[in-house]
From TrEMBL:
This is NADP-dependent 3-hydroxy acid dehydrogenase YdfG. InterPro entries: NAD(P)-bd_dom_sf, Sc_DH/Rdtase_CS, SDR_fam. It catalyses: L-allo-threonine + NADP(+) = aminoacetone + CO2 + NADPH; 3-hydroxypropanoate + NADP(+) = 3-oxopropanoate + NADPH + H(+). Belongs to the short-chain dehydrogenases/reductases (SDR) family. NADP-dependent dehydrogenase with broad substrate specificity acting on 3-hydroxy acids. Catalyzes the NADP-dependent oxidation of L-allo-threonine to L-2-amino-3-keto-butyrate, which is spontaneously decarboxylated into aminoacetone. Also acts on D-threonine, L-serine, D-serine, D-3-hydroxyisobutyrate, L-3-hydroxyisobutyrate, D-glycerate and L-glycerate. Able to catalyze the reduction of the malonic semialdehyde to 3-hydroxypropionic acid. The keyword Electron transport does not apply.
Amino acid sequence: MSLHTIKGKALVTGASSGIGATYAERLASRGFDLLLVARDLSRLEAMAARLSQAHGVTVEVLKADLTSPADTQVVAQRLRSDATITLLVNNAGVAMNGSLAEADLVKVDALIQLNIVALTHLAAAASATFSAAGRGGIINIASVVALAPEMFNAVYSASKAYVLSLTQTLHGEIGKQGVQLQAVCPGVTRTEIWERSGMDEKALPPEMIMEVGEMVDAALTGFDQGELITIPSLPDAADWNALVNARGKLGPNLSRNSAAARYK
């Protein structure tokens, strides 16, 4: 399956800037109608006008704050009720800086609500609708910190590990029903998330930072190629496959009826 065979309407969260806005542009250029979701209504409306004029597609906007459970349910209900939606790009997310011991737990709760709870509710709604229809795609934006949690903030890294795991499990649940799953694991990408989280992008080596357009183009190519997990900067897919194989080797010994001899 590829985006060329899905078509229809794509719902993109966090669509007003950065990765979400870039997905919206790329999908419009491929002929998708769009439902753009974000908090900034003026930005969404400007994008909608520009994309519909440039690509001849229908673009609808929906103002929603996905840190709000009520707003999340509005978007989830749209996914459950609108049969024209064939693709969900679960992109909305936030980062934070600093250690957990020193964290503002109100901000931690907001991150968990956005990066985990809202993403899960929308994925659940899309899973039900798409699997019943026997078609569709769900793209969840994770991060390479899901694979290297020591590199970054504990809560953010854990939230992205959740996204990765959820995507892998969903693939097992609904992949055979015609729904394509993808977790995208970008490295550092040049977006507004840096300024919003209080981190200094300039403190990182330039060779670590990918432009957002290149990242999204690589991710979409990965989707077209049927990848479940896409790491845009990874040169050799064999490295990821080796990790998958190593994890598989653990499988038979993860749950046994006695403790390993090394603990006795």
